[in-house]
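Q: A reviewer asked whether we had any structural model of the full assembly, not just the individual parts. We don't, so I'm hoping you can provide one. Inputs are below.
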Amino acid sequence: MATVTLTNVAKRFGAFEVVHGANIDIADGEFVVFVGPSGCGKSTLLRMIAGLEDISGGKIAIGGKVVNDIEPADRGIAMVFQSYALYPHMSVEQNLSFGLRMTGNPKADTDRRVKRAAEILRISELMDRRPKKLSGGQRQRVAIGRAIVREPQVFLFDEPLSNLDAELRVQMRVEISRLHKELGATMVYVTHDQTEAMTLADRIVVLRGGHVEQIGRPLDLYDNPDNMFVAGFVGSPKMNFIKAHIVGRDARGVVVELAGEEKTRITQPLAETAPEPGSKVIVGVRPEHFGGAGEGDADLTVAIDVVEHLGGTSFLYARTANGEDVVIQRDAAKVPDTSEITVSIRKSYLFDEKGLRLR
Amino acid sequence: MRNRNATAYRFLTPYLLIFAIFWVWPIISSFLISFQATRTVPWRFAPGFNWGRLIGDPAFFNALKNTLLILVIQVPVMIALAMVMAVLLNSPLLKARGLYRFAFFAPVVVGEVAYSAVFRLMFSLDFGVVDKLLNSIGLPKVDWFSNVTPAMALIMIAVTWRWAGYNAIILLAGMQSIPEDVYEAATLDRVSKLKQFFYITLPLLKPVIVFCAVLSIIGTMQLFTEPFLITERGGPGGGTETLGLLLYRQGFRSLNFGYASAVAYTMAALAIAITLVQLWLTREPK
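A: Here is a predicted structure for the entire assembly that you could use as a starting point for your response.
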């Protein structure tokens, strides 16, 4: 098992920089998820750790040893690919043992490792099948098995569940979590799905446009986002952003008035110097932080467009008087029949015009 | 739906008519002609006349032997060479890739007569560049056109030159359809490039290799231009006469269409038989 340390890691394709000096420390045995939208550089970062992409700048160390110039096979890593990358002409057993056989590993040891991996992933009965005779979930297990037999210090997963259907994705997510507990290995996992990131990670690295936006434990990112991007990316449905401006200060903090809602003023305790009165800001409210009328700081009346019933809870897609879209989460029992609803804002976040958190 | 089909067939009618007259009918007709004695007027039905002759004709067996010899030596050599060319074309280290691709493919586009004339010049005993080269490195000159073995070698060299690039392009297309991440997975598994080629590329390319081999076998069974033009009608002394050439000689020089048709059907049957055997040998295990 090993730590992974990225120091000022950069990647350029010609003049185009896709990763701008990433600094990430991954502890021994930690499960870290790189998450971000398409093109944010998360897969590139993972492939640089694997050695499949050259490093244009900075240093990557695995287990304390700088691996910039070390061959992929010698880095003590194993990777699970999005497309599984199984050898189509080989049986499951051959897929698992191929690497070990080719490098002259003793047969007894190869057999032991393959048997163990098959047992861990419960694919022992599939050993004679070719990949095309396997379901998506089974292929994914074989791909993970191929990583396990290498007995690596670090497992790298590149969007391993994105080709599976929703149900199987949940199942494999649990499976990967179990695997992490069982093997205790360091795991780095790339996904664009924030639910996967929230459920799997010990810590999440949120990336955007090749920059690390924030690193933290899932609930820390959820409760305490550094900026609007992280706030919007973590949590589903995403946080609502409502335009507002600073009105002044009172004993509890800075007072903010929602745009077009003269009566809706909320007070935010701010430690830092608050922006000048009149400055434009953005108020972020998570769908679950809307309460019933009078329960919070201020009330807000919105027009309901669509109601989505999920069973226990419902989501109300609504508009403020100023025409801004908001999503409100409510108990299914508390959804009114009316076309309007008055809600309170129980908890909110404040962002400046550039999207940085004010706190 | 039926209406649409009828309309489609009406559009296809001109083509289908031409196809039937100039393609289907000659196939049927030549089959019928192969059962007729065509050296008499009028032609008469005599099933044993041509087919019986075929079995005992030394010229037929000479042509068959030559054709099979070219097939057995030239096709594997050409496909191996095409594979090497495809690997080189696929290499990320290669510069001016488009130029090489064009250069490899160009021989197919060159007219057969022109290329044969150039080959005759290049291999000429008196002023050919090949013999000059051989001489310059201390090897004796070879009279390519007067001896059977060099003449056969020349045919094989010419056919290989003409078709290796074509096959290389097909193999290259096959190689490029193998996903990159399979190789990346192998690289992470510490599998060397050479082993990746033998254990991943070759097995995954098998259907494409079989396709190239089948095309080449069919082509070689019909080989005509090179022995006709380069070694001057299968010379020396029928030493490079192929089945295609025998067919031509019988049909269009001796005007013995019955026998030529029998040879043609034998060529087609052999090509099908060899191809079937090959497909059976290289079938996918269940």
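A: Points you may want to mention in the reply: Helices of chain A lie at 42-50, 92-102, 107-121, 136-148, 166-183, 194-200, 218-223, 228-233. Chain A touches chain B through 24 residues (CB under 8 Å).
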